[in-house]
Amino acid sequence: MTIREVASFAAGEWVAPGQGARDIASAVTGEVIASAGNSALDAQAMLDHARGTGGPALRKLTFHDRARMLKALAQYLDRHKQVLYDLSFDTGATQADHLIDIDGGIGTLFVFASKGRREMPDGHVYLDGEVEQLSRGGTFLGQHVCTPLQGVGVHINAYNFPVWGMLEKLAPTILAGVPAIVKPATSTCYVTEACVRLMLEADILPAGAVQLVAGGLGDMLDRLTCQDVVSFTGSAETALKLRSAPHILENSVRFVAEQDSLNASVLGPDVDPDSPEFDLFVKEVCREMTAKAGQKCTAIRRIIAPEDRVEAVIEAVSARLGKTTIGDPRKETTRMGALVSASQKRDVLDKVAVLEREAERVHGDPEDFTVDGADAGKGAFLPPMLFHCADPDRARRIHDTEAFGPVSTVMGYRDLDHAMALANRGEGSLVTSVITHDGDVARQAVLGAGAYHGRIYLNDRTSMKESTGHGSPLPHMVHGGPGRAGGGEELGGVRGVTHYMQRTAVQGSPDHLAAIAGQWVPGAAEVTGPAHPFTRRFGELSIGETLHTEAREVTLADIEHFAEFTGDTFYAHMDAKAAERNPFFPGRVAHGYLLISFAAGLFVEPAEGPVLANTGLDNLRFMKPVEPGDSVKVRLTVKKKTPRTEDYGEVRWHVTMTNQDDERVAEYDLLTMNAY
Ligand code: NDP
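The line above is the sequence of Phenylacetic acid degradation bifunctional protein PaaZ; the predicted structure tokens follow.
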């Protein structure tokens, strides 16, 4: 059998294993299948390549350009993922596990691609929040903006997700405009290397955007600056060692850590063994114990059930685990494959010995179990093991020892407060689930445990068919947790992108802010166009282009006509006495909807033209009532332009309606689709 040489991709060149290379064994057969690592790798050259070539090329592109690259990358990987499936079996993973790692990673790219296009501008500066009014007259404003860091994201990944682990960090990094150096865990780096080869083959990313270190990082972390980010996933011990290095501390190098986590799942006090939530709970627990052979950062390590239902839980979970076929992950009948390596298996058994001091093993015997289609003596196989801890209050190890395999401990609780206190004994975790059909239980759980957990997953009969599973971090939602879980945050949609950007509080005049953001803000210069803006194509319109309309009087007859016509005969418009009793109104007033209809009547150019559709209003506010006899006029300004498809783009117009005294009566953003 040939041994696969896992190369690094450094400064644009593939570098084969060399001095200091490590052997990698198959999780299934124990045979050496690959070798990786080269102590001659030039860390400084890699950093220079990322900072000097990858970063500038990425920063030239807009968020939308980079989002499109992520989508193209996802499509390419999706077409070629069979290569990754084939290789991944040797990590001990089954086909179902590949869906989590490989398809999950590709799905994450797709979500970031879509969020980048929908939630970020087609520009270079991401605006964080609204403009802050810092002066009475509106000539001095504030705006938080995010710009890409000018360094590199060094991604240190765990062995359990060689593809997802890379892509979930890469997607937000690239979208931010920052190059990455990926360092996968050595034991499964052959899968990551194959994925990087596919990405380079696709020829979508600019040179220097992604590099790979197979094996050790050398002294790379000692060469980082305040413009770099280390994103780490792995053990608490390694995280502590790396993040506390003097160079990292001295330079305030951002260090995002996702590490050990004693996740819990709580069976709600409302759930009886014959309710649908009970089965759901048992299924989720068993799935989390056996998926990836329990080597998931989010796996359920502690099963917390009402004291009088502990026995039923043990019985049901044991029965289900008993049906798990353990064996060669390539076999379709296999439900649980192997752990990643013999050393990981030893580590789990050592941790199991620690748990056994406080809990009794009630299911699964590591000395006596069947392995289908593989040699149990050679592969890193273990059976699922369930423990019961009778005194979880006095116990310590069950709350702080993460056996990173198919291992979980059941414990009883007296009431919901006690359940949450037990969940919080993990001292910070990635996820806790609560299976309950009672909204009050859900609320109390979030109030009691939210502070200790990065994610709270609730499930019941309503959501069980569509729910994504306790263990699945979703790209839309934050992944990470306080304390033992590392104190970091990843993913969470655009939040995850900003981890690779600097947030800067910018203060200045409206024109300063408009120039930086590429969008008009109230108070900035207005541009007078050569014709009515509705006659101008998307490409012709300038930011700040403004139309001031004529004024029109609002009469009592208008209000009554509108009321009769629409059926909106609310008293504030129709009943003078009642309206006067209302503290907000001087008497009968115009409908807000009448005002925005009049606004359209004032600014619209009726002839067929480049405006294709009105797609909505944002941030509509009515500021001052309009009485019969008042007159209103409108200012319509091009605030922002966003290309959407090949044929049209979205124009965001700022609309301000004022009265005869120039007081603002209504303000909103109008969205239209305009032909190029
Ligand atoms: P490690 O912390 O040993 O390794 C994680 C990553 O850090 C790997 O890429 C590893 O590379 C790298 N690394 C280790 N030492 C250094 C160093 N000095 N400088 C730079 N990089 C370094 O974790 P493992 O993957 O070996 O897993 C061990 C335990 O960690 C598990 O048993 C489990 O308890 C926990 N774990 C927790 C996870 C979670 O998300 N909660 C995920 C995975 C593991 P290399 O492989 O080359 O050593």
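Note on the example: Residues 156-160, 183, 185-187, 216-217, 233-235, 238, 242, 258-261, 297, 347, 402, 404 surround NDP (CB under 6 Å). Residues 274-472 form a domain with the Aldehyde Dehydrogenase; Chain A, domain 2 fold (CATH 3.40.309.10).
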